[in-house]
Amino acid sequence: SLAMDSSTGSRGPAGFATQANALFRKNLCFQKRNLKTNACITVYPILVCVLLVLMQRPIDNRIDPSKYSCGCACVDTAADGSCRRTECGAQHSTPDQVAYCQILSPPRWPALIQVPRPQSRAVRTASQPSNGLPEPTCRVTRSCPAAFLVTGSNRSLTESLSGELFPALSSPLNFTDYLDTLSNIVSGSDTVTLRRQLLEPTFISEDTLYVVQPRRQSNLSQNVSVNAGMIPLRLNVDCIQGLSLWRKSASVINDELFKGYRQRGSGGGKTNEFVAGYDFLNTSKDSLDINIWFNSTYNRKVAYSPIAILRVPRLVNMASNAYIKFLKGSGAKMLLEYVKDMPKVGSKLKVQINSILSTLLFTWIVELIFPVMLTYLVYEKQQKLKIMMKMHGLKDGPYWMINYAYFFGLSAVYMILFVIFGSLIGLRLFTKNDYSIQFVFYLIHINVQIVLAFFASSFFSSVKIATVVGYIYVFGSGLLGGFLLHFFIEDTSFPKGSIVVMQMIPGFSLYRGLYEFSAFSGNENGTGGMKWANLSDPVNGMRTILIIMVIEWAILLPLAFYFDNVSLLDGRLRKRMLVFFKCFRMRAVSFKRYSFGRLGSNVLVEMENPDATLEREVVDHLLLEPNSNYATICDNLKKVYHGMDGNPDKLAVRGLSLAIPKGQCFGILGPNGAGKTSFISMMTGLIPPTSGTAYVHGMDIRTDMDAIYTNMGVCPQHDLLWETLTGKEHLLFYGRLKNLKGVELLKAIDYSLKSVNLFHGGIGDKQVRKYSGGMKRRLSVAISLIGDPKVVFMDEPSTGLDPASRNKLWSVVKEAKKNRAIILTTHSMEEAEIVCDRLGIFVNGGFRCIANPKELKARYGGTYIFTMTTSLEHEQEVAQLVHRLSPSAKRIYHISGTQKFELAKQEVKIANVFHEVESAKCRFNIHAWGLTDTTLEDVFIKVAKGA
Ligand SMILES: *[C@@H]1O[C@H](CO)[C@@H](O)[C@H](O)[C@H]1NC(C)=O
Ligand SMILES: *[C@@H]1O[C@H](CO)[C@@H](O)[C@H](O)[C@H]1NC(C)=O
Fold it and tell me: For a substitution probing ligand 2, which of 271, 274, 311 has the most ligand atoms within 8 Å of its CB?
């Protein structure tokens, strides 16, 4: 009756290209509807780039360029007030600006010592009652001495050395030649040092210069202003006493220094600081031997200059000067004239927001596509769309290829846009490094990421969980990379092997790659950028990364393929793996148990089940003499689930034989858990039978499943449809999977749309989400019927439909069964009775009975129900009447005049019943009476109970 009937025979299974084409076109439609989402995904990197630019702007505005670049001033003013020549340099700069100046010849500065601030200099406290320290009152007058602690193995020698530590002034302070003056005495400052010695902050910020003398001379305090070289200096000179205190040993000094350290409780929470400690060790006439304690934390106060110059040179000079005086008399001197930094180039401060966030941010951006792919894959699995496609013959190969290609395209566009826009806004990571290396790196990475998504998808069955885990992976790997891996990479002592192992996590290898790119492009002044030649640099991790990723890809791809198959079939990977591991152990045990089981049950079935025996004979006969009129033959089909954790094996389907001719609709009734689903799953090739086989159109399900798919249709219990595709597009897709082409395909689609009443009013061109439940169901049926399959499986096709839709659906099924076998499971007796030609009641893994509905009713029903209502006093008469009709009648129900009897059919003639009732009416008053046949429902309950 179908248009393409004639050509059916020649149509083989759809090849790889046909399937790929079908899936490709379907996905194209799907993605076209999904355009907004896709666009959002790919536009994301552009958005980030724009955001970076926008964020950069306020930062640029906030940063005062004059503050963070070398200071300039006009040195030649014209008569009209305009500047003829501006000069930039250290001499025109504030201490903040100097750091950015080009300095060819750095200035010279006197070497100072670091003197504690007046209020924290060491005084006598409760916890430090040690001898020699001044009373705390000196803190009020800010005149506390700068205290030194000294020790040595020869006390007399040490004390004479410490007496010479602070040379006394020989002449009044003369600041015209301050370098010379200050090199002869000890002077210090409590000002915090800078990172470089280009400027001595004490000299330019009107800070106090402490002149350390053997005793305090208040007349030395003065304000001086010196024009030394280019820079005008203003100084606030103060004289303090240098106090050197003898201590017994180095450990005493240690102890005392430690007690002075800022700690709660001691000295009212104040610090008790010493300038330095000297241990002259074994110093003698022949050698100077010293240890010096100095406070290096003092200078670390300033957050933005964590590494500052330490004022140590003068401390050393003090000791050597004292020593030479001790040896040669007070006339001898050892002078430290000045300290001076190295020359440097000029620079400008530019806060690059992206270089602050750089590697971490970019890792996140690149990885963000991962959860998108994962979700997509898990969605098709969760919605069972993948199984549906598989049941219609779609092989894994085309499925993978098309999805891989789609993901690759998506990732590639995403990355290309990111690199292009990143380059446009001038991200150095992109512009500096060789684009060909970047291309190779990103190319490999997106491939690894796609394979990882495939791999991960086989472990999830819920989209929600997959999404959450996907994003946790993205942010977790980024953060761990940024804080842990980064730290390990920079720590040169960290074992390289461990880093390589860590980098096997794709997120980390991505981080490392970006880290290398940014390391190469980070240097503003240098040549910068990674070139191919740089790959051989020993510190460059890029080569390792590339190798790791390629290997990873090659390993993950087949692994993902394998896990995907395993998890699809059973839905439970864990179970499968367990089986795999237990396989060996189980084999020996299960063999025995299961052969017993088979023997026992077979005997039982054969004995009490003549239908199954009969069917078995038919099948045996058909196997010997094949008959093309039979669409499906099951030959002793069996499925055993191996018990887990010590549970016994479960026989889901026990030796099932069944032959269904063309043009028949076979209905399977049965309580839940009877094994119907296992049976259908085996027939549709989702799970392999444990033993036995089935033939569809003469082809074996164990070997020819591909060819069978072309001749098979499936209508699942729940509508497995893509909401955004139209009915027609569904049919096109599944039609192509059935290897229909061109005109044939279009005809088949029109025909099936018409046959399920979806053709008129352009319903076929509407998206499925606008369909009602009944329309979806009819579309599912149409899908199962497209391509003229020889066998169609329908799983509860009318569940959840209103009576009108149900009737429509049934007429579709009735029409469809003309040319094929339909196997239908149902819970609706009405449906079974109307649609099916033969029924099997499936109980406990096998058919309890197989027959057409009427026969079943006759056999298991075999009775009429006779009901009669009279007044109470006539009950006895009614009972007598019934016994006259049927001597073995049973009263099954009785309440206040209403009685129900079960009458054996063979004893009763309906005419007799009427006759008797008519005559009884004359004798007493009958309120109501009735005679009903048994329903299929009664049969079903009886049979199921009997099990
Ligand atoms: C300590 O040094 C003084 C002065 O140099 C020297 O005379 C004396 O012998 C030394 N004492 C010891 C125990 O070495
Ligand atoms: C070193 O200097 C810091 C900063 O002034 C101070 O808090 C700390 O107590 C000093 N340490 C000692 C041992 O004096």
Answer: 271
Instruction: Determine whether 837 is exposed, middle or buried from the number of CB atoms within 10 Å of its CB (0-12, 13-18, 19+).
Output: middle
Considering the domain boundaries, does residue 652 fall inside one? yes
Residues 794 and 890 in one domain: no
The answer to whether residues 134 and 123 touch, using CB atoms and an 8 Å cutoff, is yes
**Of 680, 714, 782, nearest in space to 392 by CA:** 714
* Closest approach atom of ligand 2 to CA 272: 14
Pocket of ligand 1 (CB under 6 A): 154, 156-157, 285
Residue 839 exposure: Cα atoms within 13 Å on the Cβ side: 26
Residue 736: give its domain's CATH number.
3.40.50.300
Shared-domain flag, residues 183 and 162 = yes
Beta-carbon count within 10 A of 765 CB: 12
Helices assigned H by DSSP within 571-633: 573-608, 610-624
Q: Which residue among 821, 840, 855 closes a domain?
A: 855
Per-residue pLDDT at 231? 66
Distance CA 680, CA 653 (A): 10
Residue nearest (by alpha carbon) to ligand 2 atom 10: 261
DSSP designation for 767: B
Mean pLDDT by 10 residues, the chain (947 residues): 40 82 89 87 86 82 77 83 82 76 85 90 80 86 91 94 90 83 91 79 83 87 74 82 93 89 58 91 93 78 61 94 93 91 80 69 90 91 84 85 93 92 84 90 95 92 92 92 84 85 90 87 64 84 91 93 70 45 41 37 48 83 82 86 76 85 87 81 82 86 81 84 89 89 88 83 86 86 87 84 83 84 86 86 82 77 81 84 84 82 80 86 85 74 68
pTM: 0.67
Strands 712-715 and 863-870 turn out to be unpaired
For ligand 2, whether the C-beta of 149 sits within 6 Å is no
Ligand 1 atom with minimal separation from the 154 CA? 1
Chain center to CA of 745? 42
Instruction: Kindly calculate the radius of gyration of the chain based on its CA atoms and give it in whole angstroms.
Output: 48
- What is the rounded distance in angstroms from the CA atom of residue 193 to the CA atom of residue 207? 12
Cβ of 367 below 6 Å from ligand 2: no
Question: Residues 6 or more apart from 708 whose CB is under 8 A from it?
Answer: 685, 696, 697, 699, 701
Residue with tokens 């079943």: 856
What pLDDT, on a 0 to 100 scale, did the predictor assign at position 159? Answer: 93
Site to substitute for ligand 2 among 189, 270, 298, most atoms within 8 A of C-beta: 298
Last residue of a domain, one of 274, 294, 328: 328
Residues 6+ apart with CB under 8 A from 308: 192, 193, 194, 195, 299, 300, 302
- pLDDT value for 575: 46
User: Does 295 contact ligand 2 (Cβ within 6 A)?
Assistant: yes
Q: Which atom of ligand 1 is nearest to the CA of 155?
A: 1
Separation in Å, CA 1 to CA 5, 779, 881: 7, 20, 56
Can you tell me the distance from the alpha carbon of 5 to that of 947, in angstroms, rounded to the nearest whole number?
Answer: 43
Element (H, E) at 659: strand 650-661
**Residue range of the domain that includes 201:** 106-328
Asked if 863 and 904 touch (Cβ cutoff 8 Å), the reply is yes
Strand pairing class (108-109; 72-77) = unpaired
Question: Total domain count for the chain?
Answer: 4
What pLDDT sits at residue 313?
94
